[in-house]
Amino acid sequence: MSLRNNRAVLLAAAASVLLVAGLALALFWAPEDADQGFSQRIFYVHVPIALTAYACFGWGAWKALRLLWTRESRYDLESYTAVHMGVIFGILTLVTGSIWAKISWGVWWTWSERQLTLFLVLFLFYCAYFMLRFSVESGPRRANLSAVYALFGVALIPVSFLAIRLAENFIHPVVFTRDGPQMSGSMFFVFCVCLGAMLGLFASLYTNELTGKRLDARLRELRESLE
Amino acid sequence: MTTSEKYVTAAYLVVLAIVLLYVVLYSFKLSRLEREVAELTELAQRRKVA
Amino acid sequence: MTYFADVAALARKDILLELRSRDTLPAMLLFVVSALVVFHFSLPSDASETASTGLLWIALLFTALLGLGRAFTAEREQRVLDGLVLAPCDRSAIWLAKSLGVLAFLGVAEAVALPAYALFFEPVGWELVAAVLLADLGLAAVGTLLAAMAAASRARELLLPLLFLPLVIPVVVGGVGATVADDPGRYLAFLALYDLIFAILSWASFEYVVAE
User: Fold this and answer.
1) CB-based contact (8 Å) between A49 and chain B?
2) pLDDT at position B19
3) Are A55 and A195 in contact (CB under 8 A)?
4) CA separation for the pair C114, C135 (Å, rounded)
5) Taking Cα atoms as reference points, which of C66, C61, C14, C16 lies closest to residue C166?
6) Residues of chain C with pLDDT under 50
7) Would B48 be classed as within a structural domain?
8) Quick check: A22 and A49 in contact, CB under 8 A?
9) For B3-47, what is each residue's pLDDT tens digit?
10) Is residue B6 part of a domain?
11) Closest chain B residue by Cα to residue A198
């Protein structure tokens, strides 16, 4: 087995251990929150997934930058895979956030939840990323366009966050509030384990996905050389 | 189970479901890759014979 | 400075083309006025002032989209873009020239839209004008880049709104906020920040968008 295979297996094993440990800790060991009770435990999945999604988009933008810098085509695949993972984690963020909103305030969606609104905007943005990729022939042109767009996405994150914050003043009064993580030590520990687990999950899925796509490309080349 | 416990469990289950869905989709991809490798090996064998 | 000479030449070409063919600008003007009329019918009678402000910004966004959709069609149809790219000028000069052209068109469209808005809905204050001017810069900068991207794709007119709308949400926030909030300065500053960030980003990355 090559070194690369070993790394993939190790990543997957580490991610699994962290994930099981994290979720178990979150459900059984973490102390009960005084205000929100049991429902606060969603925080241990929702926020790590959200942060991981940001990490995915950031990673994708980094790879995009490398592509534009060095013009090596492998970065295109890496950037695309990272954005793809980011959208998956983004969907999970929206779903878990929606469930949390339902428990906390009885509605499936609320605009006053800044993180969720930001994610919705980003989600739309990166869905358009896929539309862009699907409508351009594969090759260096598509790679360049995708890379520039991915970079714009990362620039959009802080700008959108600022915009949403400013918008609150005139769009909706902030009716729902929720205390940020003023976490106790043990809560913070569980949070970190879960964050590590989600990042590990991203790393593992990313590695596998990338290997699969590369295999696809090599098989296609092989087929062309044989036929 | 109280309502909030149900919802928390639902959130955790959604995460699990998506990850498992990914695993399923990936196994489809792997079986397709296996098939392609088999075809290409056959093509290569035929080439070698010819 | 040949860079700015190039930009001026390219921008002049676009404006002259438009003055001769007269297809994009009249369409934009007619569109924005029609949109405002439609909005009058779509707003219930007890709608607040804020609602009509929001609709004005939507009208401006879609008018911009209309103009941007045409920004690169001439080049694409006549294969001029390849020629421009091969020319010994900095690719970003193409972006700057195009953006200035789009900016000019937007300015003319708003010179009609704002009086129409004042006529149909309510008076236009200085904050709205300032916000519109600042927003124009951002819309032109980002829109020109995205229009070039869309022009390179198969989907073209379908793709441009999808790429454009998420990216300009901050502009809408800034614009509407400057009009209705008590403290317009904050929103105008935010619009300026958006313009700065995305103009620099568009200027720097345009050459990758048109390169083969």
Assistant:
1) yes
2) 83
3) no
4) 14
5) C61
6) none
7) yes
8) no
9) 777 888 888 888 888 888 888 888 888 888 888 888 888 888 888
10) no
11) B15
Inter-chain CB proximity A38 and B5 less than 8 Å: yes
Among C73, C205, C89, C98, CA closest to A145: C205
Question: Based on the structure, what is the number of domains in chain B?
Answer: 1
Contacting A residues, span 140-179, partner chain B, CB-CB under 8 Å: none
Would the CB atoms of C153 and A148 count as touching at under 8 Å?
no
Question: Hey, are the CB atoms on C180 and A170 less than 8 Å from each other?
Answer: yes
CB contact under 8 A, A49 and B29: no
Assess A46–B contact: CB distance below 8 Å, yes or no.
Answer: yes
Chains with 3+ CB–CB pairs under 8 A to C are A
In a domain, B3, yes or no: no
- pLDDT tens across A22-51, in order? 888 888 888 877 777 777 788 888 999 999
In a domain, B44, yes or no: yes
Residue A77 forms part of a structural domain: yes
> Does some domain include residue A121?
yes
Mean pLDDT of the residues in chain A: 85
pLDDT computed for residue A1 by the predictor? 41
Contacts of B46 (CB under 8 A, 6+ apart): none
User: Model confidence over C63-87: pLDDT tens digits?
Assistant: 999 888 887 776 666 666 666 666 7
Tell me how far apart the alpha carbons of residues C35 and C64 are, in angstroms, rounded to a whole number. Answer: 13
Total structural domains in chain A? 1
Is the CB of A139 inside 8 Å of chain B's CB atoms? no
State whether C190 and A163 contact (CB < 8 Å): yes
Mutation for testing the A interface, residue in B7, B20, B24, B35 having most A CBs under 10 Å: B7
User: How do the domains of chain C map onto residue ranges?
Assistant: 2-210
For residue A32, give the H/E element and its range: none
A219 falls within a domain: no
Domain of B38 in residue numbering reads as 24-50
Q: Residue B7 and residue A39: Cβ atoms within 8 Å?
A: yes
For residue A132, the chain C residues in CB contact (below 8 A) are: 149, 153, 159, 163
The two structure tokens encoding residue A38 = 């049991």
Considering only residues A103 and A203, tell me which one the structure prediction assigns the higher pLDDT. A203
Domain that holds residue A147: 43-174+183-210
| Residue A187 in domain | yes
